[in-house]
């Protein structure tokens, strides 16, 4: 709340003593009495002002939950941190300007020259790029591992392995990892574990309960829910890790805008209902596609055919709205034309908003795919909030256009 030190009372500002230019820059204080809103106010700040010179001089001694400079938090961003920490069943959350920066800040916080990080081959692709092009020149090396390794990941670890990265299900090919087994092996050899929890959100999986040290979310996706902002979160239980993350952020000058945090706070209010809806529709579609398509593999963690399905059943409370269809290489020449059948879907990266999004991707990194699928295409499908009938028509038309619809007679079914 504004204090009289900062804002002038009505009497002061209406008094005759101040010139207009001064009145322009000092806001009058108004009553907040009786004002009760359900929304979190957007507190914006670069500067935080102090009651006296001594307070200013000792500002860096303020604890990590108090206020010292806009970059380090305002009541709006603190509210979002606290809410994400509760959902993740963690103790503290830090907010970053994107999901990717949440990932890189964890790595930069934990890793020193000479250390090794293990990353699954199914990690969000910029993770491997960051390891290769940014960490490697700093003397930090990475090893890529098969996401289906559970306890055997111990065989890849030695005293220099400082961090094990996980992402479950994996980007695009959706392998579900045995997180508790990875955690046990990593901790036994003194490494920390991070989990990119963007697909599940903490509503469907709580990595910290499984023993993970850092749970990362791209709030850009389901939490914000409207494809209109970027933000990332890292949640921990260990207060020392939180202090180390905050130190990295301080060094790099990273923080988030209260306006964006306010939009995420709004998005969170409907996340549970949105996720339940898209989860239901996505599973229904995945099952129908699995029954209809020929030569394809539908990858959805709730399908028994999905690698890691048993781990998903054991560890997750449900599935979100993102899944994939792996197409045979023969589809490639038909792709452009097939995508022209879309009328409700949009084509793009990112996901988790209100619109259904389709992303054609190449599958070339996974060693343990059937040979017929290894160099083929993959369609990543994110279900949005449109009427499921409209989305299904699009999917059917695209699959007919690709020539993988099992019962088709030949040409793609027109929509209009
Ligand atoms: C989108 C995404 C990210 C990156 O989030 P941005 O906010 O776009 O930087 C990280 N991990 C996963 C799994 C994602 O899907």
Helicity range of the residues?
Answer: 25-40%
Question: In whole angstroms, how far apart are the ends?
Answer: 57 Å
Radius of gyration: 25 Å
Strand segment count:
12
**Spatial order of the strands forming the largest sheet:** 1-7-6-5-4-2-3
* Contiguous uncertain segments of 5+ residues: 409-416
The fraction of residues in strands falls at 5-15%
Based on secondary structure, the structural category is alpha/beta
Main beta-sheet strand count, sense and barrel state:
7 strands, mixed
Number of helices in the DSSP assignment: 14
Provide the residue-averaged pLDDT: 92
- Which series of helices and strands comes N to C? HHHHEHEHEEHEHEEHHEHEHEEHEH
The general outline is: globular
Ligand roster? pyridoxal-5'-phosphate
- Quaternary state reads single chain
Concise synopsis of the structure shown:
The protein has 14 helices and 12 strands.
What can you tell me about this protein's structure?
The protein is α/β, with parallel strands linked by helices. Helix content is 35%, strand content 14%. It has 14 helices and twelve strands. The strands form two sheets. Strands 1-7-6-5-4-2-3 form a seven-stranded mixed β-sheet, with helices on both faces. Strands 8-9-12-11-10 form a five-stranded mixed β-sheet, covered by helices on one side. Strand 4, helix 7 and strand 5 form a beta-alpha-beta unit. Helix 4 packs parallel to helix 10 and helix 5 crosses helix 9. The longest helix has 35 residues. The protein binds pyridoxal-5'-phosphate. Pyridoxal-5'-phosphate binds next to helix 5.
């Amino acid at each position: 709340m504004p204090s009289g030190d900062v804002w002038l009372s009505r009497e002061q500002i209406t008094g005759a003593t101040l010139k207009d230019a001064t009145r322009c820059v000092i806001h009058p204080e108004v009553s907040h009495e009786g004002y009760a809103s359900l929304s979190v106010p957007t507190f914006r700040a670069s500067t935080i002002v102090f009651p006296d010179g001594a307070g200013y001089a000792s500002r860096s001694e303020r604890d990590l939950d108090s206020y010292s400079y806009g970059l380090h938090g305002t009541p709006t961003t603190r509210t979002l941190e606290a809410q994400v920490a509760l959902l993740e069943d963690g103790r503290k959350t830090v907010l970053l300007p994107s999901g990717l920066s949440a990932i890189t800040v964890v790595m930069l916080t934990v890793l020193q020259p000479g250390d090794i990080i293990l990353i699954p081959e199914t990690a969000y692709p910029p993770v491997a790029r960051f390891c290769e092009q940014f960490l490697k020149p700093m003397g930090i090396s990475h090893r890529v591992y098969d996401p289906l390794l559970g306890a055997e990941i111990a065989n890849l670890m030695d005293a220099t392995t400082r961090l094990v990265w996980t992402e479950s299900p994996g980007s695009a090919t959706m392998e579900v990892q045995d997180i508790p087994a990875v955690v046990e092996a990593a901790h036994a050899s003194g490494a920390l574990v991070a989990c990119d929890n963007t697909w599940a959100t903490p509503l469907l999986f709580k990595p910290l309960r499984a023993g993970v040290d850092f749970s990362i979310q791209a709030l850009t996706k389901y939490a914000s829910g409207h494809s209109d902002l970027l933000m990332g979160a890292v949640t921990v239980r260990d207060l020392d890790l939180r202090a180390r993350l905050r130190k990295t952020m301080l060094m790099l000058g990273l923080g988030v805008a209260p306006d964006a945090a306010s939009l995420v706070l709004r998005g969170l209010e409907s996340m549970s209902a949105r996720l339940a809806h898209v989860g239901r529709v996505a599973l229904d579609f995945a099952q129908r596609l699995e029954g209809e398509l020929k030569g394809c593999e539908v990858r959805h963690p709730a399908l028994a055919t999905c690698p890691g399905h048993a781990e998903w059943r054991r560890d997750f409370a449900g599935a979100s709205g993102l899944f994939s269809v792996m197409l045979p290489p023969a589809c490639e020449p038909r792709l452009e034309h097939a995508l022209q059948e879309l009328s409700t879907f949009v084509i793009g990266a990112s996901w988790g908003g209100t619109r259904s999004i389709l992303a054609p991707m190449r599958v070339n990194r996974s060693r343990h795919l059937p040979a017929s699928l290894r160099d083929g295409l993959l369609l990543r499908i994110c279900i949005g909030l449109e009427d499921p009938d409209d989305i299904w028509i699009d999917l059917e038309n695209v699959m007919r256009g690709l020539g993988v619809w099992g019962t088709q007679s030949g040409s793609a079914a027109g929509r209009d």
